[in-house]
Prior knowledge:
With 128 residues, the protein is an alpha+beta fold. Helices cover 42% and strands 27% of the residues.
Amino acid sequence: xxxxxxxxxxxxxxxxxxxxxxxxxxxxxxxxxxxxxxxxxxxxxxxxxxxxxxxxxxxxxxxxxxxxxxxxxxxxxxxxxxxxxxxxxxxxxxxxxxxxxxxxxxxxxxxxxxxxxxxxxxxxxxxx
Length: 128
């Protein structure tokens, strides 16, 4: 492990923010692929997983690199509790990770019905 980022997602608060800010908020956070993954009526913990993944990745990155957005961090699949899935990186975020030879992986675990713990871990890529 090289670095880690942790986020505790307050699911009711995130749901209120999404409802209050609506489509502009969802467009800013979710890629088209993530929107397809979630479908029309995602469970709060599913949206929370993606939101938390991006928050954790930003912590590992120590902030988004210049000229990047949250769309440069993509969660291609929703992990089951305790399962680790790789994050897909694009643009400047991918360049940042490649320059350091790392990959980012996400795992989640429910804390309560209203809270979700998300963890992004940066590991070294195997070099050949």
